Amino acid sequence: MTKPASAAATLATPCPSLFSDSGSPAQNLAEAFLAVRNETERRAAPLTSEDQLIQSMPDASPAKWHRAHTTWFFEQFLLGEHCHGYAPFHPDYAYLFNSYYVSAGPRHARHQRGHLTRPGADEITAYRRHVDAAVAKFFHEAGEEVLAKLVPLVEVGLNHEQQHQELMLTDILHAFAQNPIPPAYDPAWQFPASTRGADEWINLNEGIHTVGHADDSFHFDNEKPAHRALVGPVKLNRNLVTNAEWLAFMKDGGYSTPTLWLMDGFAAVGNEEWRAPGHWREIDGEWLVMTLGGLRPVDPAAPVCHVSYYEADAFARWTGKHLPTEMEWEVAARAGHLNDAFGIVWQWTRSAYSPYPGYRAIEGALGEYNGKFMVNQLVLRGSSLATPGGHSRTTYRNFFYPHHRWQFTGLRLADYAN
Questions:
Q1: % of the chain surpassing 70 pLDDT
Q2: 10 vs 45: CA distance, rounded Å
């Protein structure tokens, strides 16, 4: 693998349309497939074999596991179920690289993925090349009728891989942040520029709006069905909360004032010894933050990043405001009212991750993809600096547990309308 001149440039590589008219259906599918698969390898290119093995906490996964798991997905659900005569690359890989698809068979424990010294990173490269070649061959040998039926499955697989491309960066950043001599994933990396404007609030008058995914373009099952929801009256800040604002919260004792916190949140503050966002370090009285470009001074003007839901909620209480619901966020974003809605940080909402009215998970093992997680988690909206280009949309529902903060997560504020 060749290291890119700047890994930052690879973060915006879009997924080509699977329905391009530039070639045959087989050619279009193969090009879209290989574009996404190559993006994974570009993101892995700056990492050493040792980097690819580390699992710095149970919620994270080694980079080589991400590379293998996304390969297993296509081997299991595309080749294994639709390509007659295909033999798995290795008989043990289904056990090693399944994640949570219980219907697909037993799997290695998630918190022990970092114990897998074998297969090595080079062997995973061979695995990926083998499956890529088999998929491309299958696309060109299958008839157009077969390919038309498989497009939805391929789209799920490619979007699934794009999710793991983001996780590769957040997981390796967390690992690097544990290193006393902080390494850089890409020394040339820069935090994206914000389009922050004046401290302006936009009003959403009370009304009934359609939310959720309403057409047949690609979406995950948790974005449907589109339905009507009462939104407002409420006002949302156009801008994301900045590091300067967060530093003021810290200076005012935000992390030590129990009345600002949910009970579980304040317990996490004590248990985890939080006194600043994730990846921040105070050295000689100066706050620094671990980034993909290494350890950098905290930029007061940049949006705050790596905060949990508990922290976001406490900050909002400190300001006398609150977090928006996911419906409020979607209505405002659809109308173009929000600055930096996409591409910098995922934004916490105060909405529980639960099914929309009339939700039905898809049949089979892929039905385990979203629905089984609809409890005890909170919804985030938008996308982050690590989200691959073309992967975000207004109806996208990301979700994490309230204590999680190793992702690129931030917030914007909402307030009751006057």
A1: 95
A2: 11
